[in-house]
Amino acid sequence: MTPPHTPQHNGIAKRRHCHIIETGLTLLYQSNLPLKFWSHAFQTATYLINRLPTPILHNRSPFHALFGDIPNYSKLRIFGCLCFPWLRLYNHHKPEPRSRPCIFLGYSLTQSAYKCFDTSQNRIFLSRHVVFDETVFPYLSFAQHPPFHSQFFSSIT
């Protein structure tokens, strides 16, 4: 146990924690996602940090040092971008759409899958088969074009 209000005793753990927080907040800020997605941003930040090479490990990643394998960088995608997961397994009827526009929220911690958030159903899907459009950020377009009621109230005041 460290004494209260003495961050100098925390050392490396404190700096690592700050690194995760700053990276997660950066992911949220760049994708313009609301703070309700903070847990997904911090999980993604940890996922990314564990796969980045570090000079402390002689330019190897923590993942490489722990498992002996080089991480698969081809799986990395831009946080908060538009994605289209294959939803056939989640559908109850054949005529339902096989995919819907979703927002990429990171990587599954237990499976080799991506986490995709469907804003229309307010639901997270895990899917291994996803098509990404890394040039479109749905929440960024929401911020640039606020809903009608925001424009209405700003015009009144």
Using the alpha-carbon principal axes, give the shape: globular
Query: What is the N-to-C succession of helices and strands?
Result: HHHEEEEEHH
DSSP E strands, number: 5
Supply the helix-strand structural class.
Answer: alpha+beta
The gyration radius over C-alpha positions equals: 19 Å
Largest beta-sheet details: 5 strands, antiparallel
Roughly how many Å apart are the termini?
54 Å
Sequence of strands across the biggest β-sheet: 4-3-2-1-5
Which bin fits the share of residues in helices? Answer: 25-40%
Strand content: 15-25%
Task: Outline the structure in words.
This protein has 157 residues and is of the alpha+beta class. The protein has one domain (7-156). Helix content is 34%, strand content 15%. A 5-stranded antiparallel beta sheet has the order 4-3-2-1-5. The radius of gyration is 19 Å and the shape is globular. It starts with 11 loop residues before the first helix and ends with a helix. Residues 145-157 have low confidence and may be disordered.
Summarize the structure.
With about 160 residues, the protein is α+β, with helices and mostly antiparallel strands. The chain is about 35% helix and about 15% strand. The protein has helices at about 10-30, 40-50, 60-65, 140-145, 150-155, and strands spanning about 80-85, 100-105, 115-120, 125, 130-135.
Blueprint of the fold:
Layout: H1 12-31, H2 38-49, H3 62-67, E1 82-85, E2 102-107, E3 114-118, E4 123-127, E5 130-133, H4 138-144, H5 148-156
Antiparallel strand pairs: 1-2, 1-5, 2-3, 3-4
Helix pairs in contact: 1-2
